[in-house]
Specification:
A hairpin with a 3-residue loop joins strand 12 and strand 13. The strands form 3 sheets. An 8-stranded mixed β-sheet has the order 4-5-6-1-15-18-17-16, covered by helices on one side. The longest helix is centred in the N-terminal third of the chain and has 13 residues. 18% of the residues lie in helices and 36% in strands. By secondary structure, it is an alpha+beta fold. The protein is built from 4 helices and 18 strands. The radius of gyration is 17 Å and the shape is globular. It has a domain of 109 residues: 2,3-Dihydroxybiphenyl 1,2-Dioxygenase, domain 1 (Roll), CATH 3.10.180.
Length: 258
Amino acid sequence: MKATIDNIVFECPDGSWTGTRWEGGPRVLAEFYAGLLGMRVVREDWLLIARDRTSAPRLAFDAAPADYRAPRWPDPAFPQQVHLDIAVADLEAGDELARELGATPLQDRGTFRSYADPVGHPFCLYQDPERSGSEAPGRIVRVVFDCSSPRVLAAFYAGLLDMPRRVEDTPERVVIAGADPDALMLGFQHAPRFDPPRWPDPSRPQQIHLDLYAEEGGDAALEEAERLGAMRLPAMGGSCPVFADPSSHPFCLCSPGQ
């Protein structure tokens, strides 16, 4: 089985459906990331943004429960679970744009800068030397998971997504990639106080999750995910089966027709 990453899905508080479009937190975040990444809304009933209808990954925005606890990095009482690494053509210009769109600066480490989006999800901006001086929009280069054991979680996703290359490999941080050097990578970093989600427990909500797609889906795809170490989670009315990875991060595994 070879699964691919279709959507990166954000939980958003204060979402409301007007009958034609989502407002509140989902709209705020969709407009924020669309401006930062040069994307546009490609679907309204389930708020989805992308460069165009055929590009991936796309970003989706779910309405979170009323008591949703957003991350407040670096406050250990409100830890992050997942964050995005975004490459920009010019770090100073990217910093200015992120602030104008509503980001809150969190730290400046020289080669990269960290922010919170308008809901509180952290993300990092990196200088992209290959696009230096251009006016290209930001590009998501990595989705990074906090976890207790980066190498264990990296091995799981490497098998599930056919991403055998290890771009980085230390006990504290692992980055994996597939054959395409320009495709999205996944990172896994050790978090001493990692507090995993316990979906669908509302007291331990997810913050960001992945929608995966298996072209050769069906029972074989579900069985392969479990063989690699995923745990099937309760069905809650969605169209795709939901799993937890070995660090309890939820993900959806969709097949043709779902």
